Amino acid sequence: MIIMIKNYDNKSKKKGFLDIIKDFVSPYHISDNPYELESASADLTSLPSYHYKFKENYRANYLIRPADTEELSMVIKQCRELSIPITIRSAGTSCFSSATPSKGGVIIDMRRINKIYKIDPDKMIVSVGSGISWLNLIEALADYGLAPKCYPTSFKTSCVGGFIATPGKAGIGVLKYGTMMDSIVSLELVLPDGTITKISRDSNGELSLEDISGTYGIYGAISEVELSLTTLKTSLEVIGYGFSSIKNAIQFYTKIKDELSTKPFFLSISNQNFEKYSHIIFPKQEWLVWAVYYDDPEVTSKCVSLTKDIALKLNGIDVEKSYLKEKWRDISDAEVAIGRSSRNLIFQEYWISDQRIEDFFQDYIKDSNKYKFLTATYAISGIEGWSRIKIFGLTDISKPREFFAVKAFLHDLSIKAFSRGDRVYTIGIVNTFYLLKFRPDEVIKRKKLKEKVDPEDLFNSYRIIKARMKFWRISLLFNTAKLLYKI
After folding, report:
1. Are 91 and 143 members of one domain?
2. Could you tell me the residue range of the domain that residue 350 belongs to?
3. In angstroms, rounded to a whole number, what is the distance separating the alpha carbons of residues 359 and 344?
4. Can you give the pTM of this predicted structure?
């Protein structure tokens, strides 16, 4: 049985729909310009366009930028009445087609819903529009001596709502203060029928914060958020050590996480290739582990001292402070820098238990040695006990066999991760087939709730509960690629 999926392209409805939307959204923030739609239908990624072939076929028909929750609600209601698919989008920095359309229809760009509604210094809570950039929020809170508890390494360009909709379990401040969901006091969600609902920690309705966090907007659009905050600290120290063996590097990395009562504000491990392709000057050792401590001076000083003691016992080599300060200053640009070293940067992100992180890195080293293409990797600490590992394959767009061999290499590591109880970190459209294969119970649970709140499946479709790609087809393609590449 062949099922034909028809995108929204009914021209007879087009004029009427746009006329209705222009009644309450400024015409300057409504577009069907093909160039704007091309840009808005893609991730902020270095991956080649043919990696996401469906983008061409399922490009959105309209781009709408509502100004507030009320306009957002009215747009969604009109889409629901006309059965027009919706894709919610902010900055689009997550990649893996987390914020790209899969059925055409409307892209709703949330970045005009970016106001700071209230800052309460006494309760240390801020209320903001979900489209505000993290950088703007950080700068505004600094005037009050306050700061977010956690935020992504892409904070210069990414938005608050995106870190909620994607996992939000690894990044700056996460190890010290908890995940993005731990920071949420409440949020306003516009459901797929246009209804506005408020969800808090003690809500007992159909949807919970756990349902919203990390589910890529399949249940609705986050419009406003209340976040708990922390205070600005007075002492920041960056410290790092180089290691010749992955075993010692991992021991150092996990000891910092497990043995220090005051956790680092940021903690990362990377191999020399990542440093080489991200920076002009780089450490000589094969592995670098570096930490940022951000607290009161006495606490920071104590953490630095304890870290040095751990490093000495594991033969760590002190890395120049100037290099580490540069890394911290440019943390949001590191992945962009490595992209300049390759015309066809391919990557995958993994969510790995710290108990299995050494085994995973050993697999990476062993498997990458089978290939001729270059690879690079780094990891950042997530919540206690877990890390997000990103692996890059550096190839050239003119080498299709090598391109698919890189994909096969990353695919094999994904299978190993799932088989051990780990997973890929970012799902989006691209990685959903892994969930269907390895986490069917999770998919069934999410699917039941999706059918209740969005029975027509108009909202951020083809994420988590159903996939455009089949696991067996992907595996066949990649196994063939390995044979052709002569692994």
Report:
1. no
2. 235-424
3. 28
4. 0.93
